[in-house]
Every structure is written in C-alpha cells, then in structure tokens.
Amino acid sequence: MNSSPTSGEGRTGAAPPSQVEVEPINRRSFLGVLLGFGAMVVGAALSVPLLRFALHPLLTKTTDIGWSDIGKIEEFASLTAPMKKLITVDQRDGWRKIVSEKAIYVLPAKDGVLRVLSPICPHLGCSIPWVEAKQQFICPCHTAIFTLDGIRVSGPAPRPMDDLESKVEEGVLKVRYQYFRQLIPTREVLA
Ligand code: FES
Predict the structure, then answer these.
(1) What is the pLDDT of residues 8-38, one digit of tens each?
(2) In what order do the strands lie in the sheet with 67-72?
(3) What are phi and psi of 43, to 5 degrees?
(4) Is the domain of 39 the same as that of 95?
(5) Which of 120, 123, 128, 159 to mutate to test the pocket of ligand 1 (most atoms within 8 A of CB)?
(6) Same domain, residue pair 113 and 96
(7) How many domains does the chain have?
C-alpha cells in the first residue's frame, strides 16, 4: 500500500504548486495590472481637488477678518468726544462669507493719532454707550464705568475697553474688527 503524495491518490486534478509559481504572467493579466495602476493614478489625481475643497474650512482661519473703512480722516480731525460709527465687516467662516454691521468708537486724536475702541464690554459683552452728560462710557448691564480713553474707573469689568487695530490709508481711517475674550484682565483676541 502506497500512501505517498506522489502516487496521485486523493488529488483533485489541480496543478502542482511548483507549476503555478513558475507560470509566466500572460498578456491579459499584464494589461489588467496596467489598467488597474492607471485607474489608481487617475483616481488619486482627481481626489486632490476634492480633498482640498473638503478640508478648506479646516486649513483656513475660521475668522478671517479684513479691514473696514470708517470714514475720511477729516471727519475726525476736530473730535472732542468719542464718535460712534457703524462699519461693515466682512468675515470668512469656513466656506461662508458673513457681512455684518458693527459699532465702534473713534476717540479724539492725541498727538495726531486716532484710536478706535470696541464698544463691547470686557465684563459680559454688553454694548457700552458714551454718556455725554457724564463724559464717561457707562455699561448699562452692571454699571462698569470707563473714561473717555476707555480706562476703567469702576465696576466689574476686569480691564479697560478694548482697542481695535486701525490705520490711515489714502486719507481713509480703517479698522480691523476683532472679538476679545471676556472676564479676563488681559486683552486676548478670539480666533
Ligand atoms: S457687561 Fe458691562 S459691566 Fe457687566
């Protein structure tokens, strides 16, 4: 009785493993590999713009705010009290472009330099009006009081009113509107 695998008993007719390994790649399978590789390259190339589109909100700053015009410089040359102005702010948030109107204060010039203040209270974010009769900024929410320069006099606000970055370009006063963290003693820009 011969139980050796070379006897042929119990075989299913498949080629021996040694024959499969040495069989050369025929033309059809080579073309298949080539087509598969080509499809992979094309797929990868096409996916780049799609990926860039999908990741755009993550790769760009969510609060990208540009410069807003306040007005011609002559308008503020002889200020004796803070002047409230409304500005248009363009803000990019991911794919969206948000246009909004914000209030700011232009302060009387000191040594020829104009300052621009945010009216948002650094305590809890109420809008602070200039009170002409008192010659002070007085927050209506919890009565924080600030001088004409925005310096804190009294109340719960943890710091002065926040300065906004400003510049003069071709005779026009411009401002970069930003938001600041509330309830902390230092001025920290929110992203
Ligand atoms: S929000 Fe202005 S004092 Fe509280």
Answers:
(1) 444 444 555 555 555 555 777 778 888 888 8
(2) 64-65, 83-93, 96-106, 116-117, 163-169, 172-176, 67-72
(3) -60, -45
(4) no
(5) 123
(6) yes
(7) 2
Kindly report, residue by residue over 124-175, the tens digit of the pLDDT.
999 999 999 999 999 999 999 999 999 999 999 999 999 999 999 999 999 9
Which CATH number do you get for residue 114? Answer: 2.102.10.10
State which residues form the domain around 128: 64-176
Residue 119 has pLDDT above 90, yes or no: yes
* Ligand 1 atom 4, closest CA: 142
Residues 36 and 109 in one domain: no
What is the token pair recorded at 1? 């009785």
Both 38 and 107 in one domain: the answer is no
Q: Determine how many CB atoms are found less than 10 A away from the CB of residue 20.
A: 9
Paired tokens of 130: 């200039």
34 and 112: one domain? no
- Domain membership of residue 5 (yes or no) is no
Task: Give, for ligand 1, the residue of 121, 131, 182 to mutate: max count of ligand atoms closer than 8 Å to Cβ.
Answer: 121
The model carries a pTM of 0.69
Instruction: Give phi and psi for 178, each to the nearest 5.
Output: -140, 160
**Together in a domain, 119 and 145:** yes
Task: Verify whether ligand 1 is closer than 6 Å to residue 141 (CB atom).
Answer: yes
